[in-house]
Amino acid sequence: MGLFYNFSVALFSALGSFLFGYDSGVIGSIVSAEFDFFHAYFHSPGVSIIGAIVSTFAGGCFFGAAAAGWLAAHIGRKRTIQLGGLIAMLGCSLQTGAQNVSYLIVGRMIAGLAIGCLSMVVPLYQSEISPPGMRGFLTGLTQFMISIGFLVANWVGYGSQFIRSDAQWRVPLGVQIFPATLLFLGMFILPFSPRWLVDQGRNDEALAVLQQLHGDKGNKEFIELEFAEMLEQIQYEKENISTKISDLWSTKPMLRRTLTGIGIQVCTQFTGINVSSYFQPTLYADLGLSGSKVLMITGVNGALGAITTIIFIYFILDRVGRKPPLIFGAVGMAISLAVEAAINAKWGGVNNHAAQTAGVAFIIIFSALFFSVSFGPISWVYQSEIFPMRIRALGTAVCTCANWACNVLISQVSPIGMARLQYRFYIFFVVMNIMNGVVVFFFFPETKGKSLEEMDAVFGDQVIPHALETKQMHNVGVQDEKDRDSDA
Ligand SMILES: O[C@H]1[C@H](O)[C@@H](O)[C@H](O)[C@@H](O)[C@@H]1O
């Protein structure tokens, strides 16, 4: 039990993040020209209908994330995840059984509501069940599972194009019903967030969950201190902080939290990641590549991204903190995109093998290396750890909505930008990545190793003294890792 159980709970809840990646990724294949049965069934939908099929999903995500802010505070994190799973089952079933375009669009919208909700609540739940020294790893599982979702979607899409019936598009859409059902049912046996339980006055249950999550072996003192601090902080917040949306900007420290939370998500979107996630085949086509090679490279890129993410969150994130990797990633992405722009400017459209290889390599380096060790995982970790309990659900929801709003904007504008600006479009993102690095350097505080209750000290509104020293808590996290190793 103990940390292995804690890890398993965080990983299982990340099935919600898998659905996020899968649902975002699969539609690209389905609307592509290779899916002839899809186009025949829906009477060759034009670009505007295809645009609607793709973007109603992201629109639904925006509203799903907003609603989850209220739900997670009232019915709790666990039940909100279950509700997300249930709605995903409905949305995916509607898409799979679609009889006409409206049916499909409604299905996409409903699935969007579910994914938006899950995208906000899964990392929030993970961060509230984690010990401080492992919060980066356990919450970073969100990004890991998003990338696995994208990866599986790519390969399912690839395989399904060879089916010679309507199953060609119904199968890849239907596949998601399985993880959605598993998430809905499995969450019945997973614990509630201990912090939400304390907020509801269910203290005994909260303590029992903490003991279950962190294990009792050699950890008793840590659990007692963590629990005492949780009680004290949440009690203080209950008496002094309301849960109104205006609390997000009512004091300077709160405004700072809100701006950094929104900031991390806006910066993440402006790295340009979704140009690569959604339009990768076009980027390769601009380099003169086509056919099955493109899907192969996309798949390899996705697999490398997942591997880099897991290595980064497990070995590095909780040791070096949030800021240094963000700055490293921003610089790395700016350089990769600058090289990409130069290659496209000089050799775009020309059949030069060396230039093509370098162009592909830098797209992969951009996302599978630099994004995966920076904004990818850290955006979810950071937004889930900076708000005080009373307003955490709402604050996290606002940040996630910022993610989806920018996501819609960039995915709508990118096809036009790529066509009109060509290689100059990369330069826009070079500039944005440099700005991201500057913003992080000057405005983002470091949160590594602090307990969620200690974030008030980080943001400058500490009122109660913290019994649990950061150093001590961090050591316990490390101690736990050792226990896990010796358990194995
Ligand atoms: O590829 C996804 C992207 O579609 C999301 O917009 C972003 O927030 C995720 O972190 C990323 O992994």
What report would you give on this structure?
The chain has helices spanning 3-13, 15-30, 36-41, 47-74, 77-96, 101-129, 135-160, 167-174, 177-186, 194-199, 203-214, 220-240, 252-269, 273-286, 292-320, 323-347, 353-370, 375-385, 389-421, 424-443, 455-459, 470-487. With 488 residues, it is mostly helical. It has a single domain, classed as Growth Hormone, Chain: A (Up-down Bundle). It is globular. The relative contact order is 0.14. Mean pLDDT is 91; it is low at 470-488. The protein binds 1,2,3,4,5,6-hexahydroxy-cyclohexane (INS). The site of 1,2,3,4,5,6-hexahydroxy-cyclohexane (INS) has 11 residues, from α7, α14, α18 and α19. Its main location: membrane. Belongs to the major facilitator superfamily. Sugar transporter (TC 2.A.1.1) family. It is found in: Membrane. The chain crosses the membrane at residues 48-73, 104-125, 137-157, 169-192, 294-317, 326-347, 359-382, 425-444.
Provide the fold topology:
Blueprint: H1 3-13, H2 15-30, H3 36-41, H4 47-74, H5 77-96, H6 101-129, H7 135-160, H8 167-174, H9 177-186, H10 194-199, H11 203-214, H12 220-240, H13 252-269, H14 273-286, H15 292-320, H16 323-347, H17 353-370, H18 375-385, H19 389-421, H20 424-443, H21 455-459, H22 470-487
The chain binds 1,2,3,4,5,6-hexahydroxy-cyclohexane.
**Bound ligand species:** 1,2,3,4,5,6-hexahydroxy-cyclohexane
CATH topology annotation: Growth Hormone, Chain: A
Distance between the termini: 11 Å
CATH H-level name... which superfamily?
MFS general substrate transporter like domains
Largest sheet composition = none
| Mean of pLDDT | 91
The radius of gyration computed from the alpha-carbon positions, rounded to a whole number of angstroms, is 22 Å
- Which architecture does the CATH hierarchy give at level 2? Up-down Bundle
Shape type = globular
The sequence of SSEs as H and E is: HHHHHHHHHHHHHHHHHHHHHH
Low-confidence stretches: 470-488
Broad CATH class: Mainly Alpha
Strand content is: under 5%
* Count of domain modules: 1
What's the helix count?
22
Percent helix range: over 70%
Q: Which secondary-structure class do the elements indicate?
A: mainly alpha
Membrane topology: Multi-pass membrane protein
InterPro entries: MFS_dom (IPR020846), MFS_sugar_transport-like (IPR005828), MFS_Sugar_Transporters (IPR050360), MFS_trans_sf (IPR036259), Sugar/inositol_transpt (IPR003663), Sugar_transporter_CS (IPR005829)
Protein name: General substrate transporter
Subcellular location: Membrane
